[in-house]
Amino acid sequence: AQRVTQPEKLLSVFKGAPVELKCNYSYSGSPELFWYVQYSRQRLQLLLRHISRESIKGFTADLNKGETSFHLKKPFAQEEDSAMYYCALAIYNQGGKLIFGQGTELSVKP
Amino acid sequence: DVKVTQSSRYLVKRTGEKVFLECVQDMDHENMFWYRQDPGLGLRLIYFSYDVKMKEKGDIPEGYSVSREKKERFSLILESASTNQTSMYLCASSFQISGSTDTQYFGPGTRLTVL
């Protein structure tokens, strides 16, 4: 079955601390993974995708096929990183369909 | 700049009413999607469409239908609203790319309350 799991509903850290938001997936095909973010009172938007291998706003994510994971990391959290983060898996050949995880709320305290 | 708009930000309806949620995108995207967003459940796909007049069921299509008569417009219909359909509804659109998956662009959402 195709599935995305984000085990943490809420992650609370202090400013300057490292952050890791966990994402595990289940998919028989070649995975294409994304992180989307929703800041307070804003639309859901793309943060990064694994094929581009970019660092966006200091965040990186590495696809680990052996562990079927795509964890999102940032070495030093900022208060403006507080948001809802969703991991998503693309399903091949299904019209751009994504399967989203349950979401993790990141709270960065001053 | 991609623009995805939804007809209402907030909607309050009564049980049994027929409800229409409209979504319009201005980027000539082939793909359009309807999700519902619930705390602890994430985004769940209701229906999607990869072309005009084409529709595919998502993971939770029961109680919903859709219409795509024009490329830029994708409507979600609740045939007979029920209280368990109280939720935030998000529309999204994307290009069709061969061999890959394009970024989905989201609308602002419609918060529907069914009394």
Overview in brief:
Chain A has about 110 residues and is mainly beta.
Give the distance, in angstroms, between the N- and C-terminal Cα atoms of chain A.
41 Å
Number of helices of chain A: 0
Instruction: Determine the mean pLDDT of chain B.
Output: 94
Beta-strand segment tally of chain B: 11
- The dominant shape of chain B is globular
- Count the beta strands of chain A: 11
Mean pLDDT of chain A: 93
Structural class of chain B: mainly beta
Rounded to an integer in angstroms, the radius of gyration calculated over CA atoms of chain B is 13 Å
Put simply, the count of helices of chain B is 0
Low-confidence stretches of chain A: none
Query: Which residues of chain B sit in consecutive blocks of at least 5 with pLDDT less than 50?
Result: none
Estimated radius of gyration of chain A: 13 Å
Task: Classify the helix fraction of chain A into a percent range.
Answer: under 10%
**The biggest beta sheet of chain A, please?**
6 strands, mixed
Helix and strand pattern of chain B: EEEEEEEEEEE
Secondary-structure element series of chain A: EEEEEEEEEEE
Characterize the main sheet of chain B: 7 strands, mixed
Largest interface: A-B, 23 and 31 residues
Assembly of the depicted chains:
heterodimer
The outline of chain A comes out as: globular
Structure commentary:
The complex is a heterodimer of chains A (110) and B (115). Chain A is mainly beta. Helices cover 0% and strands 44% of the residues of chain A. In chain A, strands 2, 5, 6, 9, 10 and 11 form a six-stranded mixed β-sheet that branches. Chain A has a three-stranded antiparallel β-sheet with strand order 3-8-7, with no helix packed on it. The model of chain A has no long low-confidence stretch (mean pLDDT 93). Chain B has 115 residues and is mainly beta. Chain B contains no helices and eleven strands. In chain B, strands 2, 4, 5, 6, 9, 10 and 11 form a seven-stranded mixed β-sheet that branches. Chain B has a four-stranded antiparallel β-sheet with strand order 1-3-8-7, with no helix packed on it. In chain B, a hairpin with a 2-residue loop joins β7 (64-70) and β8 (73-78). At the A-B interface, β5, β6 and β10 of A face β4, β5, β9 and β10 of B.
